[in-house]
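queue> holo job accepted (3-isopropylmalic acid)
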Amino acid sequence: MNCNIAVIKGDGIGPEVVTQAMKVLDAVGEKYGHTFCYEQLLMGGCSIDAHGVPLTDEAVAKAKASDAVLLGSIGGNTSTSPWYKLPPDKRPEAGLLKIRKELGLFANLRPAYLYEQLKAACPLKEEIADKGFDMMIMRELTGGLYFGQRKTEEIDGVLTAVDTLTYNENEIRRIAIKGFDIAMKRRKKVTSVDKANVLDSSRLWRKVVEEVAKDYPEVTYEHMLVDNCAMQLVKDPAQFDVVLTENMFGDILSDEASMITGSIGMLASASLNETKFGMYEPSGGSAPDIAGQNKANPIATILSAAMMLRYTFDLDKEADAIENAVKQVLVEGWRTCDIVSDATKLVACDEMGDLIKERI
Ligand code: IPM
Ligand code: MG
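queue> job finished
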C-alpha cells in the first residue's frame, strides 16, 4: 500500500517524538511491504516564525490532499514565548483549532490504558491501580466553547470577557453515533458526560444521546455529571469503557485520564471526520521545558501512528505490530524519564524509538 502522510512536527518536543514515530512506521513499511511518503508541513510557532501565521492556507490544502496527518505538538511557554504577545487568533493554538475545523475532525479518540508494567508509575493507590483500566475518551472536537464567539470589551468601565458554548443537535448526534459505534467494538458501555444540572447545551446533549442510544440496544449507557466524572476517574477508573463528552470537558478529562496511565507521554489520539481521513497526535503538549533535550517520551506519538494504520489505512496487523513492540519494550524494562522507576532502565527519546523499531 502507498500511504501519503502529511507530517507536522510542530514545536517543542514535537520534532523529536515525530521523528521516532516515522522511524517506526518505516520499519513497518519495510516488513509488511508498504510505502509511507511524507510531506512535511509547518503549523504552530514554527509557522509563525516562517510565515507570520500559525497555519497557512497552503498547508491546509496539502493536509487535505494527504491520506492522513501525523502531528507532534504546537505551542511554547505561554508566559515567556513571544508567540503569546500576538493577538489570540495569530497564536500557535489557533493553527491547531483551524486545522481541526478545516478538516472537519469532529471526533477525537483518546485511549487511556494502564499497562501492567506501568502500575508503579500510576499515581493512584495500589488497590485501584491493581484493577487496571482501559477506556476510550471520545471528545467532540470542533464545537462548543473552543469554537464559539468570544470577545473582551469594556462595559461601564469594567473589562468583561464572553465565550459562548453552542451545540446543535446534529453536532451532538454525529459524535454520539461514533461513540456508540466504538463501544460496539469494545465492552459495549457508554458513559456520556455533561453538566445537565446547569447547562442548556448539556441538556440537549443528554436528549440527543438518549435518542442515539435507542439504535444500540446492546450498549449499556449512563449519564454522568462532569464533576462527578473527574472524581470517578481517580476513584474507580475501571468502571469506564467509552467516555463520550463535549469539547472542553474532554480536553480536561483526557489530561486527567492520561496522568493515571502513568504519564501524559503515553496517551495517543486520533481525530476523525466522516471519512477514513484522520489526524493523529499525542495528547500531551509541546513540553517546552524539555524540548531539544532528547528526553521526551515518544510512545504516545508512536501509538498515534498505530492508530493511523488502524483507522485510516485499515492495516490492523501492522498496528498490532507497533502496539506489541511498545508492550515488549515496557516488559523488558526500558523507560523514558517520565515513567522510570526503580528496577527499570532509563533511555532517551531516540533510544526508545530505536528499541520499538527493532521489535517490529
Ligand atoms: C489538546 C490541547 C489543545 C486543545 C490546545 C493546545 C488548543 O490541549 O489537544 O488537548 O485544547 O484541544
Ligand atoms: Mg488538552
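queue> The radius of gyration is 20 Å.
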